């Protein structure tokens, strides 16, 4: 069982930066694929970024590539999302997610692959 708690959301002007954190409890963090998803009002939840258990491989949605960086600290059991050059369209509730499954890289963007979710943190970017 993994419990996830996000923090770091808030209100920022367009062009600004925020860093989200996701603190995980449980012994399985270091063997879990971790990801960030987001959901804007009236829209489906969408993939943002993911990182493999060792941190060796990272994956990003095209909309955030070059602006966001996902990372993890397996000693602190924490995942991070550094968000730079924020845009109004980045406004959403951001969720961290964890998966203990073995799945294809092509499935890493699918929310169905993730079994554990945080409660979400609001990010609002004013234009």
Give me the secondary-structure topology:
Elements: E1 3-7, E2 10-13, E3 18-25, E4 33-39, E5 46-51, E6 58-60, E7 68-73, E8 78-83, E9 92-99, E10 116-117, E11 121-126
Parallel strand pairs: 2-11
Antiparallel strand pairs: 1-3, 3-8, 4-5, 4-9, 5-6, 7-8, 9-10, 9-11
- The radius of gyration over CA amounts to 13 Å
- Number of helical runs? 0
Helicity range: under 10%
Can you give the mean pLDDT? 95
| Model regions low in confidence, pLDDT < 50 over at least 5 residues | none
Global outline: globular
Calculate the terminal CA-CA distance, rounded to whole Å. Answer: 40 Å
User: Count of DSSP E strands?
Assistant: 11
Instruction: Classify the secondary structure makeup into a structural class.
Output: mainly beta
Write structural notes for this entry.
The chain is mainly β and 127 residues long. Helices cover 0% and strands 48% of the residues. Strands 2, 4, 5, 6, 9, 10 and 11 form a seven-stranded mixed sheet that branches. β7 and β8 (78-83) form a beta hairpin. The model has no long low-confidence stretch (mean pLDDT 95).
Compose a concise summary of this entry:
The protein has no helices and eleven strands. The protein has 127 residues and is mainly beta.
Descriptive labels:
about 50% strand; about 130 residues; 7-stranded mixed sheet; mainly beta; globular
